[in-house]
Amino acid sequence: MDLLPVTADYDQISERMRQVAASTYMELIEGMRPHVREALSDPAGIHDTEPGRLQAYTAMVKLQATLIKELGLLYRVQDRPREEVTEESMPLREVELLLEEAQRREDVAVAAATAAAEARMLAAVQQQEVVDLAVARDRVARGLKALGR
Asked: Treating both helix axes as pointing N-terminal to C-terminal, what angle do 10-41 and 51-74 enclose, rounded to 10 degrees?
């Protein structure tokens, strides 16, 4: 028998072979189920059973147990599940530190925005005062001219 190279379809072939073997095992197990049930149904009458039949029943029960075990091995039911990490994870304390740092940056940004808004408002108020003073000065000047005439 020649060794074949592992192809890109290896996983698909492996899964298909696992399915074929599993269905064959299940057919064997289901076919044996009535005979095993018959062998185990009347344990009190076991003394009246012929030795050859008793050996056959025992062999059949062992074969069924072996087939079930093989079926489990085929699907690797005893293996520890693989840990598939789909997302990166980090310790809780690290996340807390990142959140605290983000909160500090946000607080600094809000304070800077508040200070800038206050400075703009102060400049706008001062500019409005200058305009109001200029308007008042012009009014007073006109009033004085009108009195001077």
From this structure: 150
